[in-house]
């Protein structure tokens, strides 16, 4: 940390809560000009909340907020912009149908006196800016035609060259290939020389250690460590992120957990050399009956794409799928369902009909089994009632509109729709995300029960606890490739994070 | 039915006002109908008579037959702009396959009545299938796909009649279109049967449930393993066939088959479905709503003829009523979404 220098940005005692839950508790944070400051912490530790306060997204909080030593209070992202603060969000926010140049100048295209866009000037300047970044593309090419990694680099370039003095990057490297990461880092270092202050959030701790000067660690809404990057290690940072104090209520999975002998039962799903453009490469694995296969990886590692391919929602570019030995190419989700595959996606909104009663939500996937032509509402209700009882869905009223149930109960309904006629293979994406401890345990018990009934189950999650609490065998997915398999050996949160 | 009552109880527990708000799409059209009927009954002594009720029923029959299929399409959150054109071409086709009087200057292909009817229905089903393939396989938005089909069907019509007018249609069609039984026009009976059939399919069959679910949340339907494309394709074919039947009976009803005969039915049919309260965003509404919408339009069109009003102003009034219905339709959706939160 530069001694004696005035911080460009200083936060003191920041506290922020969402609906009674404290996301940040008394956090101090200082950022100096010409510094790259890495932020690490688990999902929900408070990193993104803090950055959104800095970028003017969240405007309600308590604590002091100083820019150049002067107290400020942003009312919007525009105010933050005016103060020279810009942020690249985790999700790509580009206009794929516009040209590269238009994207670089989005919102402030150069115009002449009549207000007409100066296309030639825009193209030239965009080309120059991108060249500084080591990106060689035609500025008049349609952005959407470029690979995702390049699109992300262009978005980052737009923010970096917008003249901001403080730049926040949230998970900038998740969609980038190694050479693209190198180019990004080279540019960040050059901007640091020019005096820009950069905040770099990432799950990839190696990346953080390589590029940042200082690292701050968050845990449960608190800042738990701040050190010079040169003075720490990956192991030390992971330890600080997870915490050894046992302060968490739940099983923290910090100690080794012994995975069982791999199952020798029937292979239900065989995936061979699956690939999908830049998202997945050469994915091969098997899922067996009566076994829970966990697939762990960071956000954007390709889990979502993989789950969609298994359910026929996305078509892979290459590779094969076989269900119980029969090769399959799913033309639709209906084909996947008929082959005995079921998917519960991470977003309940995608899975459920909020304006329809619970029983229709539960029966929708099995209607063809219970009625040929005419509906049998009484039968549907009976089936739904049985599921509601078994899964302890509250309130236990199958005629109630789904939208009136709590999130955890909705998640149970999403599971319930597959359980009356159990599939051969059940794919669960983030099955316990956003649930309280009680609901989490309910879901864990349901999954264990299904395993006992002989289903092959795949659990994909970005939360190590979810995978550790459910899986018999764990695959680690990193930037679209399977990098490690844990089987019949000790595993812990540390080991998972280390592998990913 | 026990969970129906539980459902009602659940709603009661939340109070009457939210329930009314969530039901606004059903209540508003009905109030509009009552208001319009009362207004015209008061303004004109000739309006509220049994004879005139018969008039209104007959006047809305062709629209009603077309609107059955359109209800399926709009429930899926799609649109079919080719309904009037397909009605027209099917009506022309059935006349084309019937022997015309010697003074009709059309190079037609006379066939037995049953064959003529079957070929005409195949024609409209085929046009609906083209809509379906364009929408689901190629992925053209239904708005654009059916706009193209509107032109294609009009083009086929033009080629078949070449500016002439045909009069004869098979006797079955003549009877159903312009005959009556016990004082009740057959066309009203056909419309009633088709509306009832549509209602039964939507309410009591698995396919009907799929239509509502696809319209309610297409993404969720796909994640539930439904064949969404098949369902969307089916509703486009149903819409075209309903339009074709409406077109054949319409030709018999009007007594002639010619170009551009059904142009006003496009707007009328869409208006009937939407005014009735079926959500433009899909998943809400049904044939019951369409029937109310048909009556609103029928009473309005008929009533305006009974009161002394500038006939050119009527067009504007109809437009304004449609706009009001659209506002209510979209507003009702917002209210419902709020009530759900």
Automatic annotation (TrEMBL), chain A:
Entry protein name: Sugar ABC transporter ATP-binding protein
Boundaries of every ABC transporter domain copy: 9-245, 259-499
Species assigned in the record: Bradyrhizobium diversitatis
Domain of life: Bacteria
Family annotation (SUPFAM superfamilies): P-loop containing nucleoside triphosphate hydrolases (SSF52540)
InterPro entries registered for this protein in UniProt: AAA+_ATPase, ABC_carbohydrate_import_ATPase, ABC_transporter-like_ATP-bd, ABC_transporter-like_CS, P-loop_NTPase
Function summary: Involved in beta-(1-->2)glucan export. Transmembrane domains (TMD) form a pore in the inner membrane and the ATP-binding domain (NBD) is responsible for energy generation.
Pfam families: ABC_tran
GO molecular function: ATP binding
Stated family: Belongs to the ABC transporter superfamily.
UniProt keyword annotations, A-Z: ATP-binding, Cell membrane, Membrane, Nucleotide-binding, Repeat, Sugar transport, Translocase, Transport
TrEMBL record, chain B:
Pfam families: BPD_transp_2
Compartments it resides in: Cell membrane
Keywords: Cell inner membrane, Cell membrane, Membrane, Transmembrane, Transmembrane helix, Transport
Domain of life (superkingdom): Bacteria
Membrane topology: Multi-pass membrane protein
Membrane-spanning parts: 30-50, 56-74, 81-99, 111-130, 142-163, 183-205, 226-250, 270-300, 312-332
The protein's name in its UniProt record: ABC transporter permease
Organism expressing this protein natively: Bradyrhizobium diversitatis
């Amino acid at each position: 940390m530069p001694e004696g220098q005035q911080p460009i940005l200083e936060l003191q005692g920041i506290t922020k809560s969402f609906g009674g839950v404290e996301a940040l508790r008394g956090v101090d944070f200082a950022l100096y000009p010409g510094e790259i400051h890495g932020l690490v912490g688990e999902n929900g530790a408070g990193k993104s909340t803090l950055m959104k306060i800095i970028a003017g997204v969240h405007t309600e909080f308590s604590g002091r907020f100083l820019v150049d030593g002067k107290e400020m209070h942003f009312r919007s992202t525009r105010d933050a912009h005016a103060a020279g603060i810009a942020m690249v969000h985790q999700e790509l926010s580009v206009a794929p149908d516009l040209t590269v140049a238009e994207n670089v100048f989005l919102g402030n295209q150069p115009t002449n006196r009549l207000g007409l866009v100066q296309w030639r000037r825009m193209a030239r300047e965009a080309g120059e800016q991108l060249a500084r970044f080591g990106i060689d593309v035609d500025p008049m090419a349609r952005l959407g035609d470029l690979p995702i990694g390049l699109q992300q680099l262009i978005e980052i370039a737009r923010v970096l060259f917008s003249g901001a003095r403080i730049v926040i990057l949230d998970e900038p490297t998740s969609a980038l290939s190694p050479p693209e990461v190198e180019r990004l880092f080279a540019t960040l270092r050059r901007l640091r020389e020019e005096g820009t202050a950069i905040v770099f959030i990432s799950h990839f701790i190696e990346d953080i250690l390589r590029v940042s000067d200082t690292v701050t660690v968050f845990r449960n809404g608190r800042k738990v460590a701040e050190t010079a990057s040169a003075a720490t290690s990956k192991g030390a940072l992971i330890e600080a992120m997870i915490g050894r104090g046992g302060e968490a209520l739940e099983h923290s999975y910090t100690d080794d957990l012994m995975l069982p002998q791999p199952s020798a039962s029937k292979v239900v799903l065989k995936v061979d050399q699956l690939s999908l453009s830049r998202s997945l490469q050469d994915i091969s694995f098997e899922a067996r009956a009566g076994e829970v296969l966990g697939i762990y990886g960071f956000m954007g590692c390709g889990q979502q794409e993989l789950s969609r391919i298994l359910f026929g929602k996305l078509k892979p570019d290459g590779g094969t799928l076989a269900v119980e030995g029969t090769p399959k190419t799913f033309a639709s989700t209906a084909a996947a369902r008929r082959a005995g595959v079921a998917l519960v996606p991470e977003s309940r909104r995608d899975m459920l009909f909020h304006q329809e009663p619970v029983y229709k939500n539960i029966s929708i996937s099995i209607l063809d089994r219970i009625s040929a032509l005419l509906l049998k509402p009484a039968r549907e209700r009976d089936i739904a009632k049985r599921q509601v009882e078994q899964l302890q869905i509250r309130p236990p009223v199958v005629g109630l509109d789904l939208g009136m149930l709590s999130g955890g109960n909705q998640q149970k309904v999403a599971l319930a729709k597959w359980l009356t006629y159990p599939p051969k293979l059940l794919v669960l994406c983030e099955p316990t995300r956003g649930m309280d401890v009680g609901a989490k345990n309910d879901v864990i018990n349901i999954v264990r029960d299904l395993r006992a009934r002989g289903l092959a189950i795949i659990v994909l999650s970005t939360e190590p606890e979810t995978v550790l609490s459910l899986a018999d065998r764990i695959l680690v997915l990193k930037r679209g490739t399977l990098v490690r398999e844990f089987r019949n050996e000790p595993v812990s949160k540390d080991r998972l994070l280390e592998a990913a | 039915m026990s969970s129906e009552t539980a459902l009602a109880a659940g709603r009661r527990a939340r109070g009457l006002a939210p329930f009314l708000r969530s039901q606004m799409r059903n209540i508003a059209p009905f109030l509009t109908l009552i208001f319009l009927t009362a207004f015209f009954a008061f303004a004109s002594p000739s309006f509220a008579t049994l004879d005139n009720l018969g008039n209104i029923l007959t006047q809305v029959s062709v629209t009603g037959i077309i609107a059955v299929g359109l209800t399926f399409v709009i429930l899926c959150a799609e649109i079919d702009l080719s309904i009037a054109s397909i009605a027209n071409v099917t009506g022309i086709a059935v006349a084309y396959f019937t022997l015309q009087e010697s003074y009709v200057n059309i190079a037609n292909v006379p066939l037995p009545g049953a064959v003529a009817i079957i070929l005409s229905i195949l024609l409209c089903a085929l046009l609906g299938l083209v809509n379906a393939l364009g929408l689901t396989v190629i992925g053209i938005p239904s708005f654009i796909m059916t706009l193209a089909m509107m032109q294609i069907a009009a083009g086929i019509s033009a080629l078949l009649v070449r500016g002439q007018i045909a009069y004869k249609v098979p006797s079955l069609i003549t009877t159903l279109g312009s005959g009556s039984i016990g004082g009740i026009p057959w066309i009203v009976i056909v419309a009633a049967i088709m509306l009832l059939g549509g209602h039964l399919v939507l309410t009591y069959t698995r396919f009907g449930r799929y239509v509502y679910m696809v319209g309610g949340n297409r993404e969720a339907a796909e994640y539930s393993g439904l064949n969404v494309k098949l369902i969307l394709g089916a509703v486009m074919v149903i819409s075209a066939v309903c339009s074709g039947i409406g077109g054949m009976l319409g030709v018999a009803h009007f007594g002639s088959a010619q170009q551009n005969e059904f142009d006003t039915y496009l707007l009328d049919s869409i208006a009937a479905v939407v005014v009735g309260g079926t959500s433009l965003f899909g998943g809400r509404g049904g044939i019951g709503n369409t029937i109310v919408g048909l009556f609103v339009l029928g009473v309005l069109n008929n009533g305006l003829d009974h009161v002394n009003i500038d006939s050119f102003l009527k067009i504007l009034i109809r437009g304004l009523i449609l706009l009001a219905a659209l506002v209510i339709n979209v507003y009702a959706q917002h209210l419902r979404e709020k009530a759900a939160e």
